[in-house]
Write a structure and sequence with these properties.
The chain has helices spanning about 1-30, 45-55, 60-75, 85-120, 125-140, 145-160, 175-215, 215-225, 230-265, 270-280, 285-310. The protein has about 325 residues and is mainly α.
């Protein structure tokens, strides 16, 4: 219980620090949504001042921040400058698809990296080990946006197997076909996210597995005639889990940040595309709302990773 309380206090303190830094950085950026000519070339300075007063931008910066934090504590992120809609509703409509893409890609990265890394280490120096290392190198070297464009050209335009953007077909589907249509549209984006994430983790798993295979308990397990499948299940996997969970917790920000590029390329109406559009139009309330939600999800992922490590480590429970 004390560990959970400490983690909650940690999340609260980090969110406060992140909100302050983000707020100051955004307001220090050049230009603004209400700059003359941004909304309408014929807009007058009086109209701009009136809009600033409506949104509270005419107040001192410290007062704006306090008012914004107080509203955020009540789950009120304000109104979007561009659409006039509630920022909370804008994010709520986009968040599920971004979370789904990231959770599916993280799950794929986890299982593929474990399987490939352990298999490569078990066959060190053989052709499978070399193939896995070349695949990991390609994952490192291939930019996500470039791979996405290649797959769009090949499977979307030339072969026509997959759609090149969006979340659903022109003719809306119902029932089970609706979810199949979603999966069909997300196949290439999720593949790009998985491929971009397996390289580093696969080589990390391979390196750790090679160290574990050199251990005395692996030697004695084999001497007792225990088969390789049992050795992987009872000796290799339990020793890999703490390190893998830590790496996954640290890689969460990269996955969420990468969705901005993927969603922009494939025109997926997720939180990443919303952030990109808001950054272009300098829609401060939406940008701040997305930053806080993303920071919260990242911190929550790290806390869950810490709790999982505590669960996996029997010695930590005795302290």
């Amino acid at each position: 219980m004390r560990l959970l309380l400490r983690k909650l206090l940690y999340i609260g303190g980090m969110l406060g620090l992140i909100s302050l830094i983000s707020f100051l950085a955004i307001h220090a950026a050049p230009n603004s949504f209400f700059a003359a000519g941004e909304l309408n070339p014929n807009i007058t300075e009086e109209s701009i001042e009136h809009l600033k007063a409506v949104y509270g931008l005419d107040r001192p910066l410290w007062e704006q921040y306090i008012r914004w934090v107080w509203a955020m504590l009540h789950f009120d992120f304000g109104l979007s400058f561009a659409s006039g809609k509630s920022v909370a509703s804008e994010i709520a409509s986009r968040l599920p698809i971004t979370l789904t893409m990231n959770l599916v890609s993280m799950t794929g990265v986890f299982f593929l990296s474990l399987r490939l890394g352990i298999k490569a280490a078990s066959m060190q120096g053989r052709w499978r080990d070399r193939a896995v290392k070349q695949l990991s190198l390609l994952s490192f070297a291939m930019p996500s946006f470039y791979l996405a464009l290649l797959l769009i050209l090949l499977f979307g335009l030339h072969l026509g197997w997959f759609p090149i953007g969006g979340l659903q077909s022109m003719e809306p589907k119902t029932g089970v076909m609706k979810w199949i249509d979603y999966a069909w549209h997300l196949a290439i984006p999720i593949f790009v996210m998985i491929f971009g994430g397996i390289g580093g983790l696969t080589m990390y798993v391979r390196s750790l597995t090679l160290e574990i295979l050199k251990s005395d308990y692996i030697f004695f397990a084999r001497a007792r005639g225990i088969d390789e499948k049992t050795i992987r299940k009872r000796f290799i996997m339990p020793n890999l889990m703490p390190s893998i969970v830590t790496i996954l917790g640290l890689s969460l920000p990269g996955l969420i940040g990468g969705s901005v590029i993927i969603e922009s390329i494939f025109s997926i109406n997720g939180m990443g595309l919303l952030f990109y559009q808001s950054a272009l139009s300098r829609d401060y309330p939406v940008i701040m709302g997305i930053l806080i939600i993303t920071a919260f999800l990242t911190l929550l992922g790290n806390v869950l990773a810490d709790l999982a490590l505590w669960k996996l480590n029997p010695y930590a429970k005795r302290k």
